[in-house]
Design goal:
Elements: H1 3-9, H2 29-58, H3 72-80, E1 87-89, H4 95-100, H5 106-113, E2 153-155, H6 165-178, E3 197-202, H7 209-221, E4 225-230, E5 234-235, E6 238-239, H8 249-252, E7 267-272, H9 276-293, E8 297-302, H10 322-330, H11 333-343, E9 345-348, E10 351-354, H12 358-399, H13 407-417, H14 423-436, H15 443-464, E11 491-493, H16 494-508, E12 512-516, H17 532-536, E13 541-543, H18 548-560, E14 564-569, H19 579-584, H20 589-592, E15 602-607, H21 620-626, E16 631-633, H22 638-648, E17 655-660, E18 667-669, E19 685-688, E20 693-697, H23 701-714, E21 719-723, E22 726-728, H24 735-743, E23 746-753, H25 757-768, E24 780-784, H26 792-799, H27 803-817
Parallel strand pairs: 1-2, 1-3, 3-4, 4-8, 7-8, 12-13, 12-14, 14-15, 15-17, 16-17, 20-21, 20-23, 23-24
Antiparallel strand pairs: 5-6, 9-10, 11-18, 16-22, 19-21
Helix pairs in contact: 2-5, 2-11, 2-12, 3-9, 5-12, 6-7, 6-18, 12-14, 12-15, 13-14, 16-22, 23-27
Pfam families: E1_dh (PF00676), Transket_pyr (PF02779), Transketolase_C (PF02780)
Cofactor: thiamine diphosphate
InterPro entries: DH_E1, THDP-binding, Transketo_C/PFOR_II, Transketolase-like_Pyr-bd, Transketolase_C
Length: about 850
């Protein structure tokens, strides 16, 4: 008995598809029946998790809850076509799907709800993300890749609506790349490019630009991607008619529907969330199109219900009328599924067969309640034990201090009155006790201090680890290899150095690819990739549409699947279009999974001191503040840039590398060891030694600072010039402080706005490196005006620091301390 035959009897499957999950299953009716009942069981377990999860929040045992009730059936259907090696990039209501693909247990669901920091109990995020944010672990404990083809994969969820979409594009495109690209170890990431990337999104979030940009790009690239839209008719309280031009997203997307014979567009399938049979058919067809034809598919799941409303922060009764609420109660997917099961019968060899009786389904319902309650109990007790163990290890040490300060007993009394204790309460007690006994040197206090530092280090790891890589492949571990020059080394344009270095990179690393606006056919706008597409093909050196958010997304997704993408954002100003993805997604990948996933994409861009408001801005402060977790590398020339690419391709961290726009036509000596030399991250370079003042800068401004330093020499001021090179990480050896110790004066020069990057640099030097101890004058920052730079060379001169500005302001420092030797200029 084929399952397809059984389903065809009831018009569930009517297409002969060789590769779909359902078509290829040869099973008995008993097995078919068992699968249906297992789906019902999982659906009921998921629903009970939602019900109990809400109660746990409302009784104060958890902070917030957002659940997947109402979406059980479509997620069960989607899970049936989700195979090993496939990836999901999704929405935080997919708990039933996560259960069905064994990426979630009842215990881990509640562990996340309670914010349990134990990675074994809460493997998705180790308590760092609120509930409903799912992830599988792509990495071993040492940061090396697991075999992703041997497991079902979920890329770590994020909350920003539609923020998961750009990454989805890259996850899907990786399959297309792997059809043609193999390298040592690639078998861990793909089996001939046969994998699908599944995306899920709430209907209201399709109003976001990221949704449209991603779907547009997927239709152009023709990648194996299935996007499920959970359509419940609302975006929290706002009805669909107020979200988009058309209430029906399928109607809006009709222009994306592919035409026969054309290699563009997508397939669109609309299906009801409560129709189990139709859902199985819809996802079987979607899988066929995506897996066998590499076509993107939209599965628009309509008539979705939300039995408990949007979240625990409110009630949907506030904005849904009685008619709607009544309809939702009637068309609840699990209720309809139950009806379908009870009404199902088929005659096989003269005997009527049914799936289950009312009593049997009631028994499953009861079992689901017990399973969920038992799992919740285990999760709560495990979570509480962590706090109890902490309390029992440290509170007796606080009690030992009672005789040293009268307030200690009061603190302990207040602590004991707490109905529910959290780690913060324990730490608050300890810190109050240590504050109260300051100045006391006793064995008891020292014992408490020692214990405090011990447990604090544990919590520091629990809450603050893995913002950057902690593996052996972290960028700071990459050894420096200096450029090698000889008598035969040529003087060439800077663009030639970076171009020829890319040639060596593509030859050396078959997993490396680059893509961006104008990056392919013409070899980028500054010819840094000239001839590379012709030599390495359109797949590895590719043009993209004008769509920065999804250029970044391509990079994130492909890097999550073992490729080494270089995502090119044409100008530094344009990085604002993908800053949300950098900040919310890329920068947090390792952190929000506590080292469970990584995405070592390199963002290539160019900027600094060109011409005009939108081609010479310096949004560095925004990048620094919003993208902690991404390395920020600012080479002063193209040889340094080439060295940074060589470094980062040996590392497992994401980075943005800003090439100097005005350096492509400047002459540089080309190293003989292209593709091999590296520039260390987190290390400064002293480019001019001096004894009177330390000038700190980076990027294209360095050339102007060098010009100013030479002018200052003529005025009797010996300036030491330091090129930062790497903003994140910043001067790990604290060499700048050593320079200030020698010169006793500090000037930070930057083309960003006042209080921008210069404030960050100053804080790092003066506070973190404690260089304030060596200053004989106030530290000085010389920054750009707060407006965008005006057009042309005069615009640059009057908008950003010029050599004249630098000379005059630095000279004024010396005039203040010795006006006789340095008389005032003005």
């Amino acid at each position: 008995m084929y399952i397809s035959k059984i389903l065809q009897e009831h018009k569930i499957l009517y297409l002969a598809m060789q590769t779909t999950y359902i078509e290829t299953q040869q099973i008995s009716f008993q097995d078919f029946k068992n699968q249906i009942l297992e789906d019902y069981r999982l659906g009921r377990i998921s629903r009970e998790m939602s019900y109990l999860g809400r109660r746990e929040v409302l009784t104060g045992k958890a902070k917030f809850g957002i659940f997947g009730d109402g979406k059980e059936l479509p997620q069960l259907a989607m899970a049936k076509v989700f195979r090993n090696g496939d990836f999901r990039s999704g929405y935080y209501r997919d708990q039933t799907f996560a259960l069905a693909v064994d990426a979630l247990t009842v215990e881990s669901f509640f562990a996340q709800l309670y914010a349990d920091t134990n990675v074994e109990r809460e493997p998705a995020s180790a308590g760092r993300q609120m509930n409903g944010h799912f992830a599988t672990r792509s990495l071993n404990e040492d940061g090396s890749w697991k075999d992703l083809t041997a497991q079902k994969n979920i890329s770590s969820d994020i909350s920003p609506t539609a923020g998961q979409m750009p990454r989805l594009l890259g996850l899907a495109q990786a399959s297309k790349i792997y059809k043609s690209v193999q390298f040592e170890g690639s078998e861990k990431f793909s089996k001939g490019g046969n994998e699908i990337a599944f995306g899920t999104i709430g209907d209201a979030s399709t109003a976001e630009g990221h949704f449209w940009e991603t779907l547009n790009a997927a239709c152009a690239l023709q990648v194996p991607m299935i996007v499920s839209i959970w359509d419940d008719g609302y975006g929290i309280s706002v009805p669909t008619r107020n979200q988009r031009a058309k209430a029906d997203i399928s109607e809006m997307l009709s222009g994306f529907q592919r035409k026969e014979g054309e290699n563009q567009g997508c397939e669109i399938i609309q299906v009801k969330a409560w129709d189990y049979a139709a859902l199985l058919d819809a996802y079987a067809r979607a899988e066929h199109f995506a897996r066998t034809e590499s076509v993107p598919v939209v599965v628009h799941v309509i008539e979705v219900t939300q039995p408990q409303g949007h979240s625990t922060s409110g009630s949907h009764e506030r904005y849904k009328n009685e008619e709607r609420l009544s309809w939702e109660a009637e068309f609840d997917g699990l209720i309809k599924f139950r009806e379908w099961i009870l009404n199902y019968s088929i005659e096989i060899e003269g005997k009527e067969e049914i799936i289950a009786t009312t009593e049997e389904l009631d028994a499953i319902d009861d079992e689901a309640k017990k399973i969920v309650k038992a799992g919740q109990k285990v999760a709560w007790e495990s979570y509480q034990k962590t706090i109890t163990d902490l309390t029992q290890s440290i509170v007796p040490l606080v009690e030992n201090l009672k005789g040293q300060n009268a307030e200690i007993e009061n603190y302990i009394t207040q602590f004991n009155k707490l109905v529910s204790k959290a780690k913060k309460d324990v730490f608050h007690l300890v810190r109050k006790a240590l504050l109260a006994t300051r100045g006391t040197n006793s064995a008891e206090r020292n014992q408490l201090m020692q214990k405090y530092h011990e447990v604090f280090e544990i919590e520091k790891d629990n809450y603050s680890s893995h913002l950057y890589s902690q593996s052996q492949w972290k960028a700071t571990n990459v050894a420096e290899v200096k450029p090698v020059y000889s008598e035969d080394s040529e003087e060439v344009d800077g663009r030639v150095v970076v171009r020829n270095n890319f040639d060596k990179i593509f030859e050396k690393y078959p997993e490396t690819l680059v893509f961006g606006e104008d990056a392919g056919n013409i070899g980028d706008v500054n010819q840094g990739l000239e001839g590379m597409q012709e030599k390495y093909g359109e797949l590895r050196v590719a043009d993209t549409g004008i769509r920065e958010a999804t250029i970044l997304g391509q990079g994130i997704g492909m890097a999550m699947r073992g490729l080494r993408p270089i995502a090119e954002i044409q100008y530094l100003d344009y990085i604002l279009y993908c800053l949300q993805g950098m900040s919310d997604d890329l920068a947090t990948v390792q952190y929000r999974t506590k080292g469970g996933q990584k995405s070592p994409v390199i963002i290539r861009t160019r900027g600094h001191r060109l011409e005009g408001i939108w081609h010479s801005g310096s949004p560095m402060a925004g990048i620094l503040n919003l993208s902690k977790g991404i390395l920020v590398l600012v080479p002063r020339n193209l040889t340094k840039a080439a060295g940074f690419y060589n470094t980062m391709l040996q590392a497992d961290e994401p980075a943005v590398i800003v090439e100097c726009l005005n350096g492509y036509r400047l002459k540089e000596k080309q190293p003989d060891n292209l593709g091999e030399f590296t520039v260390p991250v987190g290390k400064i370079e002293v480019t001019k030694e001096g004894k009177d003042v330390t000038l700190v800068t980076y990027g294209s401004t360095w050339r102007i600072v060098m010009e100013a330093a030479n002018e200052l020499e003529k005025l009797g001021i010996s300036a030491e010039v330091i090129d930062i090179q790497s903003l994140i990480p910043f001067d790990l050896s604290h060499e700048i402080a050593e320079s200030v110790k020698k010169t006793n004066r500090l000037v930070v020069i930057d083309e960003d706005v006042e209080g921008g990057t210069s404030a960050f640099i100053l804080q790092q030097i003066v506070e973190k490196q404690k260089a304030f101890r060596y200053l004989d004058s106030d530290p000085l920052t010389i920054a750009a005006n707060d407006h965008r730079p005006a057009y042309a060379s005069d615009g640059d001169y009057f908008s950003k620091p010029s050599a004249d500005d630098m000379v005059e302001k630095i000279y004024a420092m010396f005039n203040e301390t010795n006006p006789q030797k340095y008389p005032a200029i003005f």
